[in-house]
Design a protein that fits this description.
The chain has helices at residues 35-38, 47-59, 70-83, 96-111, 128-132, 157-166, 188-200, 269-284, 287-302, 326-335, 360-381; strands at residues 14-18, 21-24, 29-32, 89-93, 115-119, 149-152, 169-175, 204-208, 232-235, 246-250, 308-314, 317-322, 339-340, 349-352. By secondary structure, it is an alpha/beta fold. Bound molecules: pyridoxal-5'-phosphate.
Length: 383
């Protein structure tokens, strides 16, 4: 059997990883400023992570939700405390798409309505409703097309007001910071507007913090920079530092009913230990503060570089837009300086998503390499 080819890949195979570095089979070392799509939160092969997962593996690695698992309760308590959502409930699943699918379904269960407002540039996953809520027609098959999803431009109030005046809206789904779109944010005032209009029309506000959450921006959630409390918050990526996990944080106004949601694998024993370890390390090593400081440091340095047009985002979720060929910049960083970075749908923007425990010396390697890259790329461009 061969693999079903659906990925455009970096032609490198990491076989070992430590902290912010990856190593291929020849021992070649790469600086990981992509973190496997923003998944590696506490760094590769963190000693606590290895220790705790190995220990749990010897006890019990998995049992389904047919039985009590007190690790889930411990995890929910800890997550509530660190995120500031102690009065919310947690539903555990396995991926970001699944979290969003459940969030939209839950909103519909709650208010009996079926339409969802989403935003231009959104990425919410690849399952049926999540992909319908993802602003890329190439990812949608005929079967995914639905009238239940309505698109609006980020920060545009009048279209949303108009839609609410004529349609029954179940929920509004918005990314904390849009990731795949090229690191784009709603204004703080827009978050307040969404909170007010959803309250007014008995619709639920869902924040997709799958990429922007878990301390990446310097606060636990990107929307924590506002005063808004969404009714539902979805999480995944950084949650398990690579162990597949997803979650839905649910406001106390939403009541649960047996069987309304479910998952075989969600919240298994190993997943909970991975999740608990990530939260422990984020706290013990002050990683949110490190993300904030590192972001400020990077932005300060990036601003001084030629051909950097704009820097967007917060903490360690940054988009750098260039006045030069971004694909060439990314390839040069990879081939000549052995640095992984991320691309985005906005072809001019490079995404920077390193592990949250990145050190100043590693940020300096990136900045120096980018400076040289920009010089060589623009020198050859002007020839
Ligand atoms: C904001 C956002 N939502 C949802 C998803 C989907 O997550 P998953 O790939 O785990 O299904 C992603 C993945 O990139 C994402 O960035």
């Amino acid at each position: 059997m061969k693999l079903f080819e659906v990925y455009s890949q970096i032609k490198t195979e990491p076989v070992r990883a430590k902290g912010v570095f990856l190593f291929d089979k020849n021992g070649k070392k790469y600086l990981d400023f992509f973190g496997g799509h923003a998944v590696i939160s506490i760094g590769h092969s963190h000693p606590e992570y290895i220790k705790n997962l190995s220990k749990q593996l010897k006890k019990i690695s998995f049992y389904s939700n047919a039985v009590i698992n007190s690790l889930q309760i411990k995890f929910a308590k800890k997550l509530g405390k660190i995120s500031g959502y102690e009065d919310y409930s947690l539903f555990l699943c396995n991926s970001g798409a699944e979290a969003n699918e459940n969030a939209m379904k839950l909103a519909s269960f709650q208010n009996g309505k079926k339409k969802v407002i989403v935003f231009t540039g959104s990425f919410h996953g690849r399952t049926s409703l999540a992909v319908a809520a993802t602003d890329n027609p190439n990812l949608r098959a005929e079967i995914n097309k639905t009238d239940n999803i309505i698109y609006c431009d980020l920060n545009d109030k009048s279209k949303i007001e108009n839609i609410f005046s004529r349609e029954e809206i179940s929920s509004v789904l918005i990314e904390g910071i849009q990731g795949v779109a090229g690191i784009k944010s709603a204004d703080i005032e827009y978050w307040n507007f969404l909170r007010d209009i959803t309250n007014k029309h008995n619709a639920l506000l869902i924040a997709d913090e799958i990429q922007s959450g878990y301390g990446r921006t310097g606060k636990f959630f990107a929307h924590s920079f506002t005063d808004v409390k969404p009714d539902i918050i979805t999480i995944a990526k950084g949650m398990g530092n690579g162990f597949p996990m997803g979650g839905v944080l649910i406001s106390p106004v939403i009541n649960s009913k047996i069987e309304m949601l479910g998952s075989t694998f969600g919240g298994g024993h190993l997943a909970c230990v991975a999740g608990l370890t990530v939260l422990d390390v984020i706290q013990k090593e002050n990683l949110m503060k490190n993300a904030r400081k590192s972001g400020e440091y990077l932005i300060g340095k990036l601003k001084k570089l030629n051909n950097v047009k704009e820097i967007r985002g917060k903490g360690l979720m940054l988009g750098i837009e260039f006045n030069a060929d971004t694909q060439k910049i990314r390839n040069t960083l990879l081939n000549d300086y052995k640095i992984f970075t991320g691309i985005s749908w906005d072809k001019k923007t490079l995404r920077i998503l390193p592990p949250l425990n990145v050190k100043k010396s590693e940020l300096d390697i990136f900045i120096k390499s980018l400076e040289k890259t920009l010089k060589s790329c623009t020198d050859t461009d002007s020839r």
